[in-house]
């Protein structure tokens, strides 16, 4: 047992400009009169944001064509189609008819009638003649449908109307499916449709349960949960306005990440602020004064956390893909709104409601109160004692566990196909299976080739000779350009199909004259160009994110050594999370990932991993001023262990809610981030970082010397704290 006494102040106790701002802000959000003004401002924001949040789904763009950089060949192909062939705002649908015993005369009559009805009522171009398979067991129709970049309902309604036509009066036993690009977009839209409320409800339900277990109060959990919900609505409203009027790209996944992140991060901030408020209620009779000190002492760490995550996510605007560029501002807006809500609206509500919200465990004024002596910190005091006794063994064992998990990265498989994108059966996937069974697998999405008319003959001959091409044909000529199509032997988004596109582009680049200007587009080309763009983004954005996070840590901790150690720890933690997640993906039979998962997972796990480390190290730095490096480190771990662990569990649980969306990408996104957060919470932040801090010693704060700094006057009464920190 070590007795620790506060050092006498040897420096000036002038609060300075930063401390002065903190004090003024704390008084504003929790003052006797100003708290009502804060509440009124948020009520105005909520009344406006709530109505706009409901419209966010109307501005989502889930068409991969719009996500690609303008330099991609597939993007150039889309522009040529729109400019010369009036193929603007259209998407191809494929209707597949199949009967195991062979198509009957009634089936053929139905197909002919459907073609006429689709041409008259639905299609915005010609409905191609029905293609009959050689085994006479299947046929398909292809035709264009109208789309709208600002309204997903235009295409989904057209596909649904098509479905009504083709399934009405269909002969018994005739299997009819809608595939192609339009069918796939419709399936994604249906998967995401109505999920806003369900996801938000599930996330709030999970958080409510965890808050009940954390606070053991039937009342207190309602306040942060209500604040988080209202903040998420305001954030969604802001994103809607930017998507509607400023061209911000929002897709289904980014919208749901915004929602989940608002709930998870907002709850984390609430846990940390309420824990500090509870401490100060023991030290002060006046709840307004207690909240002012709680806000003043919590705000630097919360602001540093929000700034780190926000700035790191804004790095995505330097990505080459439009979808990546759009995700950065979406997340940054959510973080900013949640931070403001949890540091203004939440304090105002808690002060307005008073101490009774903690019932039945109401914190009473306790002279000489020391947070580290609380019974609830007993478990973490024992953890701190173990770390203090054998720090080298602890950090070596922790790194060993992380290294073993990181070996799982060797099992990572990229190249997820359309058939692997859903966790339930959907028409577009089943239709593709039928098509591949009776026709060349690439029939549902031929490659589109655009070439100056003078080079069309050379291009057509060259394409037909490319291995993997089943057939090629010239479609039409307009504006000096010719449109050709090529059907692949492989399914549109498979590795074999992408290899065929690469061989085709290489062969065309080797031709002479105008044929060398040909561009290859279509569904497979989009998948290939997306994968290439994601690789380029990883090379650019991962170092940029690391640099930004490092600089933020230097500013927050006023040190250089500690940020290097912390950054290395979160990188190792990320590798371990990817390895563990990959092993889990194989176990649940979803082994392949979309390549974009690596970048997005890296962003969130590094940013959120640093988040918890900031919460820990900011408190440790504060305790080091009072107790010295060793005791300050272990006391910081003791008093933050419970609340930060609760925050990590809450955030991991909210990301697991993404598994409710029946797409493999959402499931994998949620599991990867949840695994990473739990590893960081229970292993990296609880054991590795404190153990390394003790082994490195006070040098970890260099070039700073927090142990020689004086704490601000009035923030904590002089007292003797007794903490079992080992020897």
TrEMBL record:
Keywords, ordered alphabetically: Cell membrane, Membrane, Transmembrane, Transmembrane helix
Listed transmembrane segments: 36-54, 191-212, 219-243, 255-277, 298-319, 331-354, 393-412, 539-557, 564-585, 597-618, 639-665, 671-692
Membrane topology: Multi-pass membrane protein
Region feature Disordered, mapped onto this chain: 705-727
Chain ranges of the SSD domain: 220-352
Gene3D superfamilies found in the cross-reference section: Multidrug efflux transporter AcrB transmembrane domain
PANTHER family recorded: MEMBRANE PROTEIN MJ1562-RELATED, MEMBRANE PROTEIN YDGH-RELATED
Family membership noted in the UniProt record: Belongs to the resistance-nodulation-cell division (RND) (TC 2.A.6) family. MmpL subfamily.
Name of the protein this chain belongs to: SSD domain-containing protein
Organism: Streptomyces venezuelae
